[in-house]
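Sample A.
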Amino acid sequence: MPSHTQFMEEHPPTTKLTELAGLFLKLGFTGFGGPAALISMMHGEVVKRRRWLDDQRFLDLLGATQLIPGPNATEMAIHIGFLRAGWPGLLVAGVCLIVPAMLIVLVLAWAYVRFGYMPQAGWLLDGIKPVIIAVIAQALWELGRKTVKSPLIAAAGITVLILSFRGVNEVALLFGCGLAVMLARNYRRLKPGALAVFALPLPGIGLPVIGAQVFSLPLMLLYFLKIGSILYGSGYVLLAFLHADFVVKLGWLTNKQLIDAITIGQVTPGPVLTTATFIGYLLGGVKGGLLATLGIFLPSFIFVALTNPLIPRMRKSAWLGGLLDGVNVASLALIAAVIWQLGRTSSNIQLDIAVMIISLVLLIRFKINSTWLIGAGALFGLLKASLN
């Protein structure tokens, strides 16, 4: 078997931009099933079919996306584009993965604004809601099994969950948990007095907004830039940030609108974070949808460009590994807190619980694709509408 170096010599990292664009446009239109499905599709295309990368390089890139904020699947596309065609490839691959989903979501957002408050559309979304909660819960279970590797990680996650219910800022919880796990694992490496650095007061990361605010496009853009810059763990943790910022702090969305936005992100192909496109359209029309998309995805392009040359060292760092494990378990705890809050908003909690349990069984036991379940939820919603 040829070595990694031999492989790269036989397959130099140069690819036409049109070929990159064609691949990632295809993935953007057909990539149903969330980030794990998208990454699997990329592996099949760039490793098995096109042989642009070998397995080791692909795994290196995947590990690097876990160490930086942002959506993993989108960042994988950006990394691949950067390796194959430099800066133009970075932009082409990322944009071509995002744009198809963004356009589809804009159309659905228009339809939601036009018809979303009619009884039929309302029942449609009500039918999907418990399925979405089940999909998120199943992802939480799968990610949790891989993340909770020790009693230390389990204790950190439980602590974050408790503090989240007590109203502690979600960004502080993410970074605080990451630092705590990193230090607990590596305290023997510290020199005397080094802990004093971590005791210094840190500047606030959240934007200083308290209570409901008058909507403005620049403020909305700032919040999506913030979320895109600190979104660790999984696209599903987006729930926690959107709820904290747009429902609680700003008062621009209701819980129902939030779960509807998450639903749209799930039922469309491409990155789940195009949920931001939907919210941006609800708040500010087409211009709002475009700005929200720009805000939440722009940090990923910057982080990939900065970290790509550092990947070989990043994946071997004991310090960054501890930080990542702490951030990931905090992300999962925040997801669990938001699932609880959203589940309590049901209009028919007994029926929703039944649908959610059935969906979980189908997801976990029978490995049914979440897209099919979401479609079944939509049909269930339509059935409820026809009986009322």
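Sample B, a different protein:
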Amino acid sequence: MDSKGSKKLLFILGSIAFLAQGDNYAAAPLLINIAKDLHLTIPSAALSVSAYMIPFGLFTLLFGPLADRYGKAKILNLATFGTAIFSMLSATAFNLSSLCILRAINGAFASAVLPVAVSLVGDSFDDANRQNALGAVIGIMFLGGAVAPAIGGALAFWGSWRLLYLVYGVAEFIVALIMLKQLEKEPGVLKTLKFSLVYKEAFANKELIKVVSVLFFMGFAIFGSFMYSGKFVQVRLGYNILAVGLLVSLFGIGTAIGGRKSGTIRRCIGNKIIILAGFFGGICWMTMAFWSSPILMAVSLIGFGFSDILIQTTLIETAQQLMPKQKGTVMSLASFNMFMGGGIGTLVYGSILKVFGFDPIFFSAATIIFFVGVVSTILLTKFAVSTKKVQLSMP
């Protein structure tokens, strides 16, 4: 693929990743308005986030193998149209049940976006450029998630939280039409598809399962805790919803900066990048609980996002290397773990918030991130050693 084609592919995939993730993360500051409009508590309103994340995690197990069988572009197109339609319908929710149902279906379709888009990147770039390309798409995805609070905050400030879901749905529909014309419809890599055999092969790969399992704890700590950052900023600083969204969006700036250079940084530092990122990210998030200054909060948010993307892209590229012919299935397992972790984390941290307040959320999430860095470094070091032994034993 030439440079122009690569940039076009990254732009298209980055756009839908930006919108799909933003569709979810916009709820961070909007929980305040959703709760008020539907006469709910904040933790009850947060159930709509879990309603999106948990189907997102579950249905990703379906779409990855389907992409390997029928072609990644076809499945991505189908899912994009689906998530666009149900995002727009979410704007019509009239109570918690209807909102959760619509968001759940939305999340089910959106579950294809990350695994299929990222596996498509994995197929389209060589080893030297793959992690930077992965980082670009995943970084833009997280940027979309973090900028969404600012966008959502602005729309809620001047209009309604419902307008946010409508705007995102329309934008996703436009990108789906562009994708329909621009993405090359290549055939799948599997001649037949039996989900039991696909996942039996994946679960037989013990190294792969270890790597993707770590992503569950990443999702639990990062996605779960970040959802309450908007309310924390509002309580601590007394800002309106627009200002809250703008400040919280700095998390995404950190992911976008780190994502574009994640591969380059890893080549310079090696696999110890993960333990360093885990330590730095943990410190940034733990200190967030102490700040009463928007400047210091901004530093913590940017540092947290920067560290997160370094860890995630390294783990995802490693996972793809462990099962290179079925990247769709690999990314299904990775997304399943990340977003199931995020959905469960949102529920757990909501319960913690009710009883203990915000501080334990930041402390526990920071501790998990630090241990993720340690465990991931050990796993990747063992993988590198075993790979080297195999290479040396080859004639």
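Observation for Sample B: The chain is about 85% helix and 0% strand.
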